[in-house]
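Hi F.,

I've been meaning to write this up properly since the lab meeting, where we talked about keeping a consistent format for the predictions we share between groups. The idea is simple: the sequence comes first, exactly as it goes in, then the structure tokens exactly as they come out, then a line or two of notes. No screenshots and no reformatting. I'm using this chain as the first example so we have something concrete to point to.
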Amino acid sequence: MDLGIKGKRALVCASSKGLGRGCAEALAEAGVDLVLNARGAEALEATAADIRSKYGVDVTTVAADVATEEGRAALLAAAGDVDILVNNAGGPPPGMWSDWDRDDFIAALDANMLAPIALMKALMPGMIDRGWGRVVNITSGSVKAPIPALGLSNSARAGLTGFVAGTSRQVAQHGVNINNLLPGIHATDRAASLDAGVSKAQGIDIAAATAQRKATIPARRYGTAAEFGAACAFLCSNQAGFIVGQNLVVDGGALNATI
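Output, unedited:
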């Protein structure tokens, strides 16, 4: 399928590895020029070089923390006018409700709610002026089915989802579509870290911990970054022009819900 976005320009946050990189690669394969962002410069430059060599698109890199005003300013200055924004950030640490204080919640909100909103506010006016734009926010399956140990993430990502629900319906008339992608367990560093936590907590080896978690997924496997990226690229395509304010779960069927 021709996604119809060749020659567009996309900003993809947290894209040096994992799901962010999967999205960047899928967009590059569709002919989209990229602005890649991550906090670690070394991994970011390696990813950019690989994508340039594979797909022949223009790739700009900005090593910055988008949860800070300084980081966003540097990123926006380098990005210029973009047609596509993919918001992505690692989730806050797990814990119990009694573990967190105000500073913990502010940090979670800054990274997983307020930073994506700030980037949308900065970049969507240009999209509106040009009559075309796509925003995809990578959130979490916890938006639909909260995960008890991830209360900080549940809270911040639910706030972003609420913002998108209203805002997406205000800007759709201008050809700007905002949607959210809700990942389940994918074969990334995050999954490996969580598997290690299960291994330690239960006193079992990593392979057993991984098998145990895969058994909770109807597909009986972890997703891949490439699969996730393909879903992102479709939501950024011309063919997704009538999809507005939706939350697409990409989890192999793990969320047990009718709607």
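Notes:
The longest helix spans residues 102-130.
The longest strand covers residues 176-183.

If this format works for you, I'll send the rest the same way.

G.
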